[in-house]
Amino acid sequence: MDPKELEKLLADAAAKAAAETARAVVEAQTKAAEELQRKADEEAQLQAKIKAAVSAVQTVDTGAEKLLAEVEKRLNDQAESHKSALEGLESALREKAAELEAIQKSRMQFSEPRNSDGATYAEKEAAVFISKITKKPIEETKYAKSLVQKYASGGTAGAAGSGGGAGGAVRLPGQTWELEVSTNMENEIRRQLVVAGTIRQIAMPQPFMKLPINPDAGADATWVANSDFGAAASSGTARTHALKDIEISSAKLATKEYIAFEEEEDGLIALVPIIRDAITRRMAKTLDKSMLLGNDVGATTYAAGINGLAYYDGSATASPTVAVGGKLTFAKFLDARRALGVWGLEPSELIMFVSQAAYYDLLDDSTFQSTDKVSESRNTLITGQVGLITQTPVVVTAQMTGLAANDALAVLVNPRNFVVGNHRAMRIDTDDEVVNQRRVIVASMRIAMARLTSNEGSGVVAIRYV
Questions:
Q1: Are strands 438-451 and 418-433 parallel, antiparallel or unpaired?
Q2: How much is the pLDDT for 317?
Q3: Which of 48, 111, 126, 216: CA 20 to 30 A from 30?
């Protein structure tokens, strides 16, 4: 094709495209203008009808009536707008109803669950600690007032002990929150305990109690010969059987923290979790070690308010030993069972507490079954359990740290011969030390532990270093 013809062809195409574009723009503008004019005509007709209707009424509208009419008109317009917006979505919503419900149910909840009174446990705990530290009623603290503003949502806060306020207001029941925090802290201590969870526990209404026990009557019953029927020997040999009792007394376990007067209430909110964790951790560690080694005469005697399991090892001469630097083996476990006597006949009733060093010794013993080798049907939920030896749970504890002569590295016990008494739950008290310009926080509880009987032995054997 000749270049001039090609140039002419391109020019004609460009001119045609420009003409079509201009025509489309003009048509769009014309259409928009017509639409605006149509809407203006409709509005004018509507206004004319309104004026005609108003003129037909022979009453005089007040300012309030006009305002009411305007409000009703706007509400109607809004309702129509919403209706028209949802008309195209009704069928889609019906089709996706099941899927939308499943999505709503499967959403993960990342916030801490709240109770019926609205506040989370962490908020209650902070409120109780701040109340104790500042020595104010809970409802008078700045933090509690902020909770009221956070959850009230137009309601009023419930009075102390009165339940929730109107409109979903947060409740500030004082004593109820203190009891909940105290119970939760005590439960947190027990979750960290290794020994206490394996021994039967009883409530102690008094700090000192006598527990009745029913010991063995001694000899067996008597076989009666046929020739003795009708005679005195027909009733068997008389046996003397008397109930006995043991005394159990609770001891006080306490710890304290100090807070300077300079700490403001806002700053205490960040300190509450730290103080709470420190208190529960110290109480749990001390209680666990006391129940295991309390007053036991090892290389260093651990003084405690209660006697630990190792203290009751009454067969010291028969108890197995391990040379300092030696290893705990399956053979030593069998020796400990033998030293238990009748208390050690049923291996599933026993529990063996071992130190960390003894635990690593057992890992080298092929007889030891660690938890990864134990089937679910034989596994248990004892805190600290790391495996089994002939159906006897092996529980590791960090409280047996001694490696010198006479220190215990393992304790084999039948828990049925021991009891733990709970006299008073966790209690938190505070007071001011004006001279030192600080507040003291004291957490305390009262607990007891005792052996039930020494018949047929103590029911516990400690394996010690020599």
A1: antiparallel
A2: 56
A3: 48
Percent of the chain past pLDDT 70, that is, above it, reads 80
Strand order in the sheet with 251-260: 200-203, 418-433, 438-451, 251-260
Amino acid at 341: G
Quick check: 330 pLDDT over 80? yes
Q: How far apart are the first and last CA of the chain?
A: 113
Residue 133 has pLDDT above 50, yes or no: yes
Nearest-5° Cα angle at 334, 333 to 340: 90
Q: What is the pLDDT of residue 167?
A: 43
User: What are the distances in angstroms from CA 112 to CA 117, 119, 170, 189?
Assistant: 14, 10, 16, 21
Q: How confident is the model at residue 171 (pLDDT cuts 50, 70, 90)?
A: low
3-state SS, residue 244: strand
d(CA 143, CA 127): 6
Rounded Cα–Cα distance for residues 444 and 446 (Å): 7
Q: For residue 370, which amino acid is it?
A: S
Beta strands in 318-437 (DSSP E): 321-322, 351-354, 369-370, 385-389, 392-396, 408-413, 418-433
Give dist(CA 180, CA 121) in Å, integer: 9
Structure tokens at 404: 């010198």
> How far is it, in rounded angstroms, from Cα 125 to Cα 131?
10
Q: Which residues have a Cβ under 8 Å from the Cβ of 117 and sit 6 or more positions away?
A: 158, 163, 164, 170, 171, 173
Q: Can you give the three-state secondary structure of 266-332, one letter per residue?
A: HHHHHHHHHHHHHHHHHHHHHHHHHHHHECCCCCCCECCCCCCHHHHCCCCCCCCEECCCCCCCHHH
On the question of pLDDT at 98 being above 80, the answer is no
Sheet holding 408-413, edge to edge: 321-322, 460-465, 408-413, 351-354, 392-396, 385-389, 369-370
SS3 133: helix
Count of other CB atoms within 10 angstroms of residue 219: 8
The helix/strand/coil state of 66 is: helix
Residue 163 pLDDT grade (very low, low, confident, very high; cuts 50, 70, 90): very low
- Distance separating alpha carbons of residues 371 and 281, to the nearest angstrom: 26
Which residues have C-beta within 8 Å of that of residue 459, sequence separation ≥ 6? 312, 340, 343, 413, 414, 416, 417, 418, 451
CA distance 362 to 396: 11
Closest CA to 117 of 147, 91, 89, 74: 147
